[in-house]
Design a protein that fits this description.
The protein is mainly β. It contains 2 helices and 11 strands. It starts with a strand and ends with a strand.
Length: 128
C-alpha cells in the first residue's frame, strides 16, 4: 500500500521520448514529495526530478532539466516523468519514491536519502 508502482519503461531509440508513471496510495501521495531516481549497475543512484504533491515545488537534476519534466495528477495519485531527447546515457533502472516529510519542498532539494518508500523500478533502455 505504501510502495509506489512504476510503469512506462521500455526500449526507445536515441532522440525519442518516454513517459513514466508512478502510482501511489492516497496516503503515500498526498502532501508528499514524489521523486524519480535512476541507477545503473555499479553506479550511485542519482536524482532525476521531484515534486511536492501539495504545492507547486519541482526540482530537477541540472544535467537533465532541459529534457525532463515532472507532473502530477492528484485524481489518480500519480506522478509522471516525461523524458525527451533521450540518449543512450539515460539507460537505467528508474525508481519512484515518496518522502512524507516533504523535504523537497521544505529544503528545496533532490536527495535520494530523503525518500522512505521505493518502488521496484522500471527499466529504460535507449539505443543509439
Amino acid at each position: 500500500q505504501v510502495q509506489p508502482v512504476e510503469s512506462g519503461g521500455g526500449s526507445v531509440q536515441a532522440g525519442g521520448s518516454l513517459r513514466l508513471s508512478c502510482t501511489l496510495s492516497k496516503t503515500s501521495y498526498l502532501d508528499n514529495c514524489i521523486g524519480w531516481f535512476r541507477q545503473v549497475p555499479g553506479k550511485e543512484r542519482e536524482g532525476v526530478a521531484t515534486l511536492y504533491t501539495g504545492g507547486s515545488s519541482r526540482y530537477f537534476a541540472d544535467s537533465l532539466k532541459d529534457r525532463v519534466d515532472i507532473t502530477k495528477d492528484n485524481a489518480k495519485n500519480t506522478v509522471y516523468l516525461q523524458m525527451n531527447k533521450l540518449k543512450p546515457e539515460d539507460t537505467a533502472m528508474y525508481y519512484c519514491a515518496a518522502d512524507p516529510q516533504r523535504r523537497c519542498a521544505v529544503y528545496g532539494r533532490l536527495r535520494a536519502e530523503d525518500y522512505r518508500y521505493w518502488g521496484q523500478g522500471t527499466q529504460v533502455t535507449v539505443s543509439s
